[in-house]
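seq/struct pair 1
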Amino acid sequence: MWGWIRKAVRTGRVVEPAGGAPGAVIESPAGVAGSLQIRHIDAGSCNGCEVEISGAFGPVYDAERFGARLVASPRHADALLVTGVVTRNMEEPLLNTVAATPQPRVVIACGDCALNRGVFAEAYGVRGAVNEVVPVDIGIPGCPPTPSDIIAALRSVTGT
């Protein structure tokens, strides 16, 4: 047991390298620079993107070191991170969540399904891609996108 503790103390904290700050994709809403409160919405995904989002906010990639934080209420959010196609059952809850998020807000579509319906393009229960239901500011391509892609998109909003 002491060997593991010594190794942990010797090694220290291990995280992915941050790289340089990306250029701003959009103009950040007032008060968002350096800090971004995010409400995640699963509009009908296969949960692949959710696994990568949890990886992005986990201890290795640690998105919180760049000022991005997940919040439980849309009323506390600056941004909405939407995953999956918008199903017919999730269209109204998504619209209600967008309406409950204060202006100015950023809507981020995460994953190929959210951007262009992906493999669910012709499914009977699909209403459409996220941008067919609500305006989207940033898109993160990939099936699923990597944690580093997700963090790069979040950093483009915060400017960190």
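seq/struct pair 2
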Amino acid sequence: MMANSDSSIVELNVRQGEPTLVKPSIETEKTLYFLSNLDQNIAVPLSTVYCFKSSSRGNEDAAQIIKDALSKILVPYYPMAGKLIISSDGKLIVDCPGEGAVFVEAEANCNIEDIGDLTKPDPATLGKLVYNTPGAKNILEMPLMAVQVTRFKCGGFTLGLNMIHCMKDGICAMEFVNAWSETARGLKPIPPFLDRTILKARDPSKIEFTHHEFDEVEDLSDTKKLYQDEDILYKSFLFGPEKLDLLKKKGTEDGVLEKCSSFEALSAFVWRARTEALRMQPDQETKLLFAVDGRSRFVPPIPKGYFGNAIVLTNSICKAGELLKNPLSYTVDLIHKAIDMVTDSYMRSAIDYIEVTRERPSLTATLLITTWTRLSFHTTDFGWGEPLCSGPVTLPEKEVILFLSHGHQRKSVNVLLGLPASAMETFEALVMQV
């Protein structure tokens, strides 16, 4: 349900047309396309919605222009027109027969302003603005890319994207969508670097580090039961420049650390606040996972325009009691060390570790922070100007917290998360104290 400007309730109804396949505009390579172990590691669907307000141009030709541009951009990005299969060695690989991406046109029963707040995930409402393959039980039964253009009564429209994360990380997704929108405006974007074998596992494998990101932590606090017993609430919390500065000051006020970044201070705060909100036992180990962009950290650096996942999960593990009894600087220092740990040899060791064990990171008693603060999705312009707003439809796992940049100068951060109702109440109170 959504509230419009006169406070009456509007229920979003969307009438979807029949899905069609959009093929690359010219013949593309028919091949099996390699995915690295960093791609294998995050094989989950991810849905985002972009809202474009009405303009003098109207929305009558929006779907056709976006569709035509998609057909063109699927030439340099031809693997996006393929489908996931399992290779002979049991890994995900892309079959590229050039079938195309799924495209759906839809009509909404209201104005775009009636959708409400796009800065928080809302699967019930926003889920109607993306196309989900009926009956798909896993990612092998889903298209790599499904596009839905929904026209609203006011002349605005939304672009809903459903993509599989193993095809691209946030930076790569942003480059793809922006190249697509440039194509719609008649520009010629820079082609991507497609060769993912540069991140292939070594032969023989060389595991040089202990990769605690894969550790299974025992759920001594029975948080699993809390998630099962209570309603999960999704909320967003805005941290403006003043709040971020205050957290940075708290992270250094005891003199232990000389400086800390906004990311380190905010991550430290939310890790501690979530741990307290979930009432974790003092001897409960809690794990923090977050992605570090490896593009500049690999030796040699990853080529510009790399098409694929170049992020590596780093980690910190700490007992809940230690986390909460120590000052904020203690947590900031843990995060700082986790970032510094990510070197070329660490990342290649992680790639080899996945090759040997085939493990995926465990999320028990874990917080996974994913940050979109450096991603310029707000610049995406298909010819109707920059989006009114953009955001995720839902969070991929209950353990995920998302950082999104906010405001005209992108100096604020929106923190999006879902928690059991009682835990959300505590978390909200802790945010109010900052």
